[in-house]
Each structure stands twice: as C-alpha cells, then as structure tokens.
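Dear all,

This email documents one entry for the complex benchmark we are building for the journal club exercise. For each entry we list the sequence lines for every component of the assembly. Then comes the predicted three-dimensional structure of the complex as a token string, followed by one or two observations. Please use this as the template for your own entries, and keep the labels exactly as they appear.
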Amino acid sequence: MAKKYLIHFAIAHGEFRYPELQSISELFDFEIKLPESKDELDTSLPFLIVELEKDVHAQFIAQRCILVKAVYELWVVASSKEELHHRNHEISCLWKPFENQSFRFDVTAINHTIPMARQRDIIEDFAYMDYKGDIDMKNPSVVIAYFEEYPKKNILRRRNEGDGQFERVYFGRLVTESACRHLISKFNVKRRVYYGNTTMDAEISLLMANQALAAPGKLVYDPFVGTGSMLYTSAYFGAMVLGSDIDGRQMRGKNTSIPGIFQSAAQYEVLDRILDCCTFDITRSPLRRGNFLDAIISDPPYGVRAGAKRLGRGKQRVVEHPPAQNFESTASYAKVPYELSDLTADLVLLARYLLKKDGRLVWFLPTPTEEYQDVDIPVCEGMEVVANSEQNFGKWGRRLITMRKITSTEYASPSFDPEQRMQELGGNITLNPGHKDFREKYFARFKRIEDAETYIPTRD
Amino acid sequence: MVRLITHNLLACHVRGCTANNFPLVFRDVQIELKEAEFNEQFLRNFMPKIEWRTLVDTAKSLNDQSLPDQPPERENVNEEFLKTLHHVLLEIHVEEGAMACPNCGHVYPISNGIPNMLLQEHEL
C-alpha cells in the first residue's frame, strides 16, 4: 500500500532531478509514483510529493540521489492553517504511533522567514496532538517537520512582509536526511590531487554515476577518460572501472612516477576498483570482444578545450620509422580531426557493441541552443534514450543523455568509417544535427552562417 | 596495473593483423602483487566473458599456477575458487614491460602501469 512522501530537493540542476530519481528506483528495484500535473513537476519548486511503498525506499533515495536534501513521510498538505488542522485531525492514525517518543518540532519556511513569536504559536496550534514524549533537540527519536512555502521573492520586500500568506503548508515526519550530498564536497575538484582543464565537476560526475546505475558487481568504462573524473564517482559507488584515452599525458599528468589518475583514485580510496587505464584510440581499439560492460560514462571531447582527434593517415606518404622515445605524446602519432557529429554517432554504435543488455550509455552532448532539436541525438536500433537533461549556458549548452541497450543481440564492432556509418546507424539519422561542426560554431560564438561577415569556419 | 583481467580483453589491431593476434605476450615484466578488495558479485558476472585458456597460460607465464585448466561448472563455483580467480585477475599487476603480438610482432610498451596501445601511421 503506497504512502505519500515529501521530497525536499536542492534547487540546482532541475532537469536532472527526475532522471536521477528514476535511475535510483531502478537500481534498487522499487516503485516510485510521481505526480502527473506539470505544475507539480515544476523543477523550480523545492518540494515534490511522491508515493512510495515504505520508508526503506526513501532511505535508498537519500543514499544515492545527490539532488535530494531530505525525505519526509507526508501527513498533510494544505493551503491554509484551517485546512491543515482540519486534515491533521482526520489522519491521527499516522501520527499517534509516535506520541510517546522523544521528539523535535522543526518549523521552516521556504522563500521567507517566520518571526520567532509566530513559530511558537504554530507549535502551540498542534497541542491537540498531545505528544507526551520528551522534547530532544539533539537526538530525538522522531522529527516532526512543518514547512510553509511562499512564492519566490521577485522584488525586495521587508523581512516579514506577507507573513502567514503562504501558498502551501506541509506537515510530516522526517524519514531521512541526505546521506550523499556530502560527496559533492568530498569530490570537489579544487581539493583533488590531480585534475586538468577538462575535469568534470563533482556534482555532475556524481549525477552521471547515478545515471549509469553504478553499483557493486558492475563494470563501467570511460572511453575518453582524460583526468579520470568520471571514474572516481562510479568506483566510489562500488563499480569496477576501466578507462582509456588517446592521450596518455592526460591520464599520467606531468613528470610523475605515479600516473595522476591513480593518485586521485588513491586519494578517494578507490584505487582498488580502477581495473586499468590504457592509452588507445577507440576507432583503433584493442578490445577483443563486446557485450561485457554494464555502463559507459563519458564526456566526449567537443574539440574546444581538448582537440578531438583520432588516429588516421594524413595526405602525405606513409612514414615507416618507429616513434621517438617520448611515445606517449600523441604528437608522434598521425592523427586527423574527429568531428563531433561523427564522434557522437560512433559512441552510440560503440556502446551498442560493448554493453550487455540493459547496459547504459551516459554522455554529454554539447548543443548550440538555437539549433538543437531532439532528433539530433544519434540513435540506432537496439539503443533507446532514457533521459535527456540540459545544462544551459546561454548560447550553448550540454545535455546529459542516458541511453539503454534494449536488446541482447550481439552486434559487430562499429567500423568508424564514414562510408559505412550511416548504414550502421540504420539510416534514420539527421545529416546536419545542431552539434555538427560544434568546434567551429563555438569559436564563431554561435553566430549563424547567414551572418557571413562574422562566421569564419576554421579547421586545424 | 595492467591486471590480467585487462590483458584478457586486449588483442592486436594493427591493420591486417587478424589471426593469432590474441593473446598478447608479456615481455620484460616487472610485477607487483597488490591486495584488492574481494567482490564476489563482480567475479561471478565477469566469469562468462573470460577467455579461460589464455588466463591460465598467462598466469603460468608469470609464475602463478593456482588456476585449474578448466573453469568449474556454474553450480560448483564456490568461494575458494572465486578467491583464487580474484587473486589472478585482480592482484597481479604488470607495472613495467611490454606486450607483444605473436603474429605481427608489434610491441605495446607498459610504463607506470599504463599500456600504450596506439598504432603508427603505417599500421592504420
């Protein structure tokens, strides 16, 4: 029998909220029912009322959803004081069981401050509940929570203006506070032993690990591992991780006998779970088989800060002699540019080959805001889009795409060949997605081709 | 690292090298044994993906004889076997040296635990 729970969300990353909730419910195999109306699902609001079977499911949410601050068992939601108490009398069977336990009564307002005097009045109004237990501020058995939700302050108001004119009031029992938001600080890049200019921030890398359903027993791979930011969080959640990159220097750092990636992994005590990091190009990959990964997580190179390259023969004649001593530098290997729409299509094809059934591909697609359309996301038979969350930076943004392999068919390794790619994708792909030639568009500041004088396509 | 679990997944992909390109042969190795946390679920999940003969032979080439020539049947996979498998797959690290292709001879160097599997232009 489902009960109503109140989730208190952090305000940032609104578009990532529901995908994260859904991922965790899938990971721990429990049902969560979200409201259906668009108003209630507005992600600028701090609260969401959901239905769960039991408290332990709320614990799972608090364990892994980094956008969740706390979860409460919801006793009453109302739009006035009268309605609140009227309803509260009716559902006494929900709060009576706690009447002899030590408790604390928290009174809070969102977008407002309730003056001290009224806070006392509010608590007094609940005297009919007749709680006999001791009041314990430090370590109560139960925490009763009361929230008044006010509309966002658009204009400067005096501190207590509009006091009492809340939009909604919630009343319930704290089930659990977040058990994972401290990880945002733990994985803060500024305190990381090894990082670079392509390192992903902590909060996003945690969200990605959740989207990938990282957990003990799983094997997760990042094919553009760079400085490893995607590995640490998945490993922290229990997965074994594998990384590769065409540029060995990104994984090693400078002048050190212990590669930077391993140093950061040791800092987070997950070095054990890094299976290996290897230098190779995914288009010339040494992997001998597919169908063995549980997830692929990646922030592919857009070509802006990190040059997106792949090994390739140049127009000049073949050079026969072996590489110079500094063999780790990709400068000593022949390479050609890897245009973003080709790279992203290949990534999806590669995922289909390497993932087990139900495995997940979690990756960022950079998008020029004006040009993006949903059909731009490369899809192929056997792969399905599960979530699409945007981080908008103005003229461009990036979308965290979660895809799932829905078939147990074992596909061949992708060819990475421009002539065959279309066919491998199944033909129904946009020829000029918004992210095509992303690098050039970025450096032209996303002015359209029509602005001929300012659009100067450049190639290196 | 280069752990044997990873080595079991790597083949040579020089252009034209499509037969006898797996497994790669270790050379001039410097080994370190490092304890790793035992994860039964992971080992059970990964077992069907292992090329068993290669794993046994490669372990032997590194002086570890602990694995049986044939993996046990599913029902007989017990904790003792998994602990041995755990040790061979995850706790033997080739930190320095190289892996060579038995077919075309390409040498993939390993330095500080990271193997370089990039290919030269004439090999693409």
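Observations: The helical segments of chain B are 4-7, 40-46, 52-61, 79-90. The CA atoms of residues 9 and 49 of chain B lie 9 Å apart.
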